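Hi U.,

Before I forget, here's the chain from the pilot set. I'm dumping it here mostly so it's searchable later in email.
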Amino acid sequence: MNDEMNLQSENNTYKYFVPLVFNNEGKRYFFSTNDAELMPGDKVVVETVRGYELGVISDRPKEMSDYSAKFDLRPILYRASEEDYEQYLSNLELAEESLAFTEREVDRLGLEMNLISGEYTLDRAKFIVTYLADHRVDFRELLRTMASQLKTRIELRQIGTRDKAKMIGGIGICGLPLCCTTWMNEFDGISINRAKNQMLALNIPKISGHCGKLVCCLAFEDDYYTEAKKQMPRPNQALTYNGDEFRVNSINVISKTIVITNSDARITLSLEDYNNALKSGAIKTGNRK
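Structure:
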């Protein structure tokens, strides 16, 4: 209760909230503000967990009363000046040079690290490097050489393949931008059992995402399939239909249809027709294997 009261008190000091994007990435992050005149494309300076950053407004401010998430909002500090934007562009160039230096040091030290990106905070107080690695890396010597050369704080951040896909972005098999890039914050483990539960063909390349792991959307509909299948017969279940013996060949949760077959016939029934036949006695289920 106290946390909720503190959150409401903090947010009540600002009238609006507004989404920002960083480094032209698709995901939006929300910040609080009292500036109702902010427009999409406006550049602002904010302080994040990484440090001071330049972000771009992606939508008009909305009333704080419409904010429903349970996360406190950091405020927008001020509109970015021309000097701030020039510093941002200069940081991008410097980050490329610093990342190239880091890559040379990684090779010299023989470290098994795949560097993904390097970024400076707006005030250059920190240089943040993200990398992929299969195992834990002892980068103490690397840190010493980087700090000596770059003259700033260094943060080496190990990420997974899902995080890499989130940073790079792309288009999913649905034709839309990747969920991890646009709105997802956490990655749950995706088991092959979810694909089986949704009766998908176990063609791993087709049900894998850009990261090489099973697509996250397998988790989005899994509960629906679990509940919907409770209302349908099991595949291969034996039954009689109008006195003839059949087996359930397949079920389709989306279209809510059931296919029953025997050596002479193949019949497709809607779930409604199947339930009505059960009630009337036209269908009788059995346990014969």
